[in-house]
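We were asked to recover a plausible sequence for a given structure. The inputs and outputs are reproduced exactly as logged, with field labels preserved.

PROBLEM: sequence recovery
POSITIONS: 377
GIVEN STRUCTURE:
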């Protein structure tokens, strides 16, 4: 069992946030390690401050230094010490679902000059291949999905039929640039309709939406993907049977959502997951239309060569950092997209047993701390 996990170079980090403690569980091919860190009511604001610095492309030196400081501080306190070049599955809890861990930095920035150097920071993206899950249960439930030959169905609407929705300048170009990497059919302009989605999605194993998306934090089920003629709502998605290998939600805030106690983040990406799609690429903030096209083209080029979603996205991010001019290397431009899913995990009883063990140990640790708190009171 340990040999199989070491062969995958895979480790699982699961977070559970209590009222006064953050519980961190690290599972690898050798052992299960549990860590408890005391937190207070400022922790949520601390996480949101990181998210704000990430999702706002500021060019002030003060914001640059602030990000360097809080990013390294978070890494130093709440990210387990893991050997480089490992494949990491992160199962975040509550607000921790809102930040991309690969944008954290693992070395403190010590320069005393006033030059902004986002491109020189030692991001976790350079050291690890990171994917995310909503729950460890999905590692058991979702790993029976067999991958099909890649056929991609894309939607790149214009919004001339819709009142009050701005046009996306680069969305059709984004999809046209990936057609050489796999068998692709694209509905663009006014053909990117709800009717064409419903009538065609079952014939493809990859869906790509280069669209607007709107997250409704007051009524999450009213969140939606904007097509050329109408909206595809979250409440509609969760009732569908999406027998896909991958959904790429190349739109704003498809991975972010409302944090609900005991349920995690309610989001468009989670709706796809609950509808049966085992792998989603989604965004955590309002992304740049043009830079997204560059990232997606590189992602599909990598995916065509290795058929590994998390590795392809990780390589696309590293390529972007290496080949882009310095002023466009703020994490806002490349870190917003995350892979949520379980591709290329072994479908075997040993792995399922390991995950069940993690769940049981997590529950026992939480019960111990609850009992201890009650006893102290």
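RECOVERED SEQUENCE:
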């Amino acid at each position: 069992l340990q040999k199989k996990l070491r062969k995958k170079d895979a480790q699982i980090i699961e977070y559970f946030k209590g009222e006064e403690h953050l519980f961190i569980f690290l599972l690898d091919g050798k052992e299960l390690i549990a860590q408890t860190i005391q937190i207070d009511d400022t922790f949520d604001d601390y996480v949101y401050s990181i998210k704000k610095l990430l999702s706002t492309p500021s060019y002030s030196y003060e914001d640059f230094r602030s990000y360097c400081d809080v990013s390294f501080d978070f890494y130093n306190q709440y990210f387990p010490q893991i050997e480089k070049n490992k494949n990491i599955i992160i199962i975040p809890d509550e607000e921790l679902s809102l930040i991309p861990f690969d944008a954290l930095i693992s070395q403190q920035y010590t320069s005393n000059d006033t030059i902004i150097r986002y491109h020189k920071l030692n991001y976790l993206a350079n050291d690890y291949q990171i994917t995310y899950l909503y729950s460890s249960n999905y590692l058991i439930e979702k790993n029976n999905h067999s991958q099909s030959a890649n056929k991609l169905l894309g939607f790149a609407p214009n919004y001339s039929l819709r009142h009050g929705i701005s046009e996306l300048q680069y969305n059709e170009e984004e999809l046209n640039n990936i057609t050489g990497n796999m068998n692709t059919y694209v509905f663009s302009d006014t053909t990117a309709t709800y009717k064409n989605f419903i009538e065609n999605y079952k014939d493809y194993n990859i869906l790509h939406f280069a669209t607007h998306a709107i997250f409704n934090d007051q009524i999450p089920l009213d969140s939606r993907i904007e097509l050329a003629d109408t909206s595809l709502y979250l409440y509609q998605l969760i009732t569908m049977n999406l027998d896909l290998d991958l959904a790429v939600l190349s739109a704003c805030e498809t991975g972010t959502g409302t944090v609900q106690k005991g349920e995690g983040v309610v989001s468009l990406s989670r709706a796809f997951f609950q509808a049966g799609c085992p792998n989603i690429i989604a965004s955590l903030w309002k992304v740049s239309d043009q830079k997204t096209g560059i990232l997606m083209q590189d992602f599909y080029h990598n995916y065509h060569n290795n058929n590994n979603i998390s590795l392809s996205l990780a390589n696309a991010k590293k390529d972007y950092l290496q080949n882009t001019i310095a002023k466009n290397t703020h994490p806002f431009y490349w870190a917003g997209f995350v892979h949520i899913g379980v591709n290329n995990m072994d479908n075997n009883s040993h792995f399922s047993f390991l995950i069940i063990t993690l769940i049981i140990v997590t529950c026992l640790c939480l019960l111990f701390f609850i009992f201890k708190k009650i006893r102290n009171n």
